[in-house]
Amino acid sequence: MRKLVIVLLSAICLVLLGFTLSSFIQVFHYNLSAPADVGSTNKSGYRLILITQEMDTPFWDKVEYGAAKAAGKYGAELEVWGSYGTNQEDFLKYMEIAIASKVDGILVQGLNTDEFNKLATVKAAGNGIPIFTIANDVPIADSLRRTYIGSDHYKAGQMIGEQLAEDLGHKGKVVLMISDHQEDFQSKRLDGILQILKFYPDIEPITVVAGDTREKVVAATNEIMNKEPKVAAFVSVTANNASAMVQEIGKRAQLSRFHIYSFDDSPEIKTLLKEKKMSGIIEQSPEMMGELGVQLMVQWLQGETFPLKYEGYFTDIRLLKADELP
Amino acid sequence: MNTVQKKILSLTAIVLFIMVATWFILTYYNQKMQDQYNDILQRYLQMNEVSASSQQLVTSLNNYIQTPTSSKLSNAESDRQRLLDAQLQIADLRNNSNHFTLTNYLNLIDSLVDSTNRSIRFLGEKNNEEALNDFTEATRLSKYISEMTLTLLGTELQTYDQFYRGMIMQSVELKKLGVWMLALFTFLLLLFTYWFSLSITRPIQRLTQAARELSRGRFDTHIEIYANDEISFLAKTFDRMRININNLISEIQTKAQLESELQKNKLLLQESQLRSLQSQINPHFLFNTLDTLSKKAYLEGAVETSDLLTSVARLLRYNLKRLDRPVTLYEEVRVLREYIFIQKTRFTERLRFEEEVDEACLYVQIPSLTIQPIIENAVIHAIEPLEEGGTITFRVRDGGSEIIIEIEDEGSGISEEKILHIMEDRFAIQEGDGHSTGIGFGNVINRLRLYYGREDIMAIQSVVGKGTKVILKLPKEREAGVNHV
């Protein structure tokens, strides 16, 4: 009896002790050191900002990825800001904040508007902040941008033109769908296509200007198809319009009757190509753009690459045909 | 020595120590958490301060542009200073995750201050359009600052998310710890107190038990209490008291026994007196007659007869004396000689008596009629039955602290068994068969033992067929014993 009581008491004692100890350990386990105390790592790298109008699209994700990779490599700090769905107001606000924040360099998707050019010339240049355009360029004269990193859109237009001529057999009507938003890259692409098509007098290019909303693109497509029933090929010079255009064509006729071309800087393009709804696209190298952009920026800031090529640094482009896909 | 008071004090000290320690630990942790909470609140307040002061700056700048007075200007300037102070403080909030944003933030504040400054300057130069332009920019920047404050707060929350959760968990754990600690200490203290109180009360209980036994008259149980405080001292004292009482009781018992022995002895003496009285119906008449006979014999020329009669008379007179009075050894020896003289007349050549007496030893006191019965015993057993008679040797010598008296005969001896019987059978009344005084051997032994208070007063050495030797060892100084035997 006595033994039992002793065993029982010591068991209770042990249990209580165990719980107390575990609780004690738990309390001391939370070694709370505020992250603030960790600070003062003093990253002395350059503060770079990448600003885009099209956040979270596959194209810009790749640009971001490449830029981040290069930033890590060169010890620069990179932050990506941007608006969704080409919201220009937000985009310009980010530009202004970036300039007011006195970052060391801005990589920006070019936007050919007065506000953009004003910000780039007056504010950025006034504060001595270099601006590189990336993927989309703006005219050098208006913007005072230091350089451009991205595809050679003129050459891309030429590639489309050549392919077009080949596919059409040197004759037929081609609709060149452009946006009413006169972006630099768009005009360059158009110039490239038209430059090639000049050599083929039997090919008749028809330039259609559509708005940048889906409805406007659909309306424009309808209109041109009504007006010109014998169109053999479509080129969506602005990739963002391609999906609406293809959808509308598909509604009215067999898609396979047409040769449809575009560029790859829109989220839906790759899918359309895979579904063989398009004949071919120009594939760019977004990752390369990001990487090269950051690299050039850092090198320029360090004074290694001087002077910069004003016309820009071109990244690879290639034609991707639907027939060649597996 | 641990005292009960010391024990209680130490218990209190332990309890106090545990309480204080617990209090300190819990308070320390609470304080630490409080500090952390304060730090966090401080961060948020500082961020908010930037946002608020930038808006305030824009407002006061607007006021100044509306009505350009110097008081408005100083207002705007004090607001600018407030913003700069806030900026200075916020610079300390830098950490890994908000590093970039914070730098932007600080630069934004700089830009705002710059625009404000430019606006004020242009206004001073009366260039109202430029001033308004810069004011608009300042307004936008202030808006951006507010937005970025939110971004920063968001980042802050994200960065500190783990930290905050940790804090919440820790406070929960701390509460749990408090409960567990309370339970553990309560339990331990209860156990300890129980054990401790037992260490005080158990000895008391045992002492009570012992006292109860004692009060029932059981003095022989040993009281032993293993404790290290006053109770143990009490128990020891109590035990000593028990032993003392026990000793006193046994002493009383011994005394009572002695008393009873004395009583018996007195009875014995009376009996021997009675016997001697019985055997001497008219001793005075007999004595007088013997005296007359002696004179008559002397007158008739029978000198030897006359001497014999004198001896008998003397022996008789000695016997008539009170037996309970001690006499000197000298008197005993004189009576012994009278007796021997009488017996020699009776046994003639058969009785040879040799005495070696150290006269210096004869002063000692001795109960009367002690040696004569022993000699008589020797005559009866060693001379009478033998035709050729025998020698009886009587020695008195100084043996240091005692006088040694030896009576030796050459008779048939006594068996070991019988010696033992004589020595052991203390109060058995032996018949004084054939003894002239009617006093037997046993009587003598007992009287001697009582008189000297010693058991080993007499020894008998005997070899069967060779003879017997009776040795008396009389101490010169009488020790304890019963007086007046």
Describe it:
The complex is a heterodimer of chains A (326) and B (485). By secondary structure, chain A is of the alpha/beta class. Chain A has two domains: 47-151 and 286-315, 3-Layer(aba) Sandwich (Rossmann fold); 153-284, Rossmann fold (3-Layer(aba) Sandwich), CATH 3.40.50. Helix content of chain A is 48%, strand content 19%. Chain A has twelve helices and twelve strands. Chain A has helices at 2-29, 35-38, 58-74, 88-100, 114-127, 140-143, 153-168, 184-197, 214-227, 242-252, 269-274, 286-301, and strands at residues 47-52, 77-82, 105-108, 131-134, 147-151, 172-179, 203-210, 231-236, 259-263, 280-283, 313-315, 318-321. A six-stranded parallel sheet of chain A has the order 2-1-3-4-5-11, sandwiched between helices. A six-stranded mixed sheet of chain A has the order 7-6-8-9-10-12, sandwiched between helices. In chain A, helix 3 (58-74) packs parallel to helix 12 and helix 7 runs parallel beside helix 8. The longest helix of chain A has 28 residues, at 2-29. The mean pLDDT of chain A is 85. Chain B is an alpha+beta fold and 485 residues long. Chain B has two domains: 4-205, Four Helix Bundle (Hemerythrin (Met), subunit A) (Up-down Bundle), CATH 1.20.120; 256-475, Heat Shock Protein 90 (2-Layer Sandwich), CATH 3.30.565.10. Chain B has a five-stranded mixed sheet. In chain B, strands 1-3 form a two-stranded antiparallel ribbon. In chain B, strand 4 (390-399) and strand 5 form a beta hairpin. In chain B, helix 1 packs antiparallel against helix 4 (128-215), helix 2 packs antiparallel against helix 3 (99-124) and helix 4 runs parallel beside helix 5 (230-279). Chain A binds chain B through residues 9, 12-13, 16-17, 19-20, 23-24, 26-27, 30, 32, 34-36, 38-41, 43, 47, 77, 79, 93, 96-98, 100-103, and chain B through 29, 36, 39-40, 43, 93-97, 99-101, 103-105, 107-108, 110-112, 140-141, 144, 148, 159-160, 163, 166-167, 169-170, 173-174, 176-177, 180-181, 183-184, 187-188, 191.
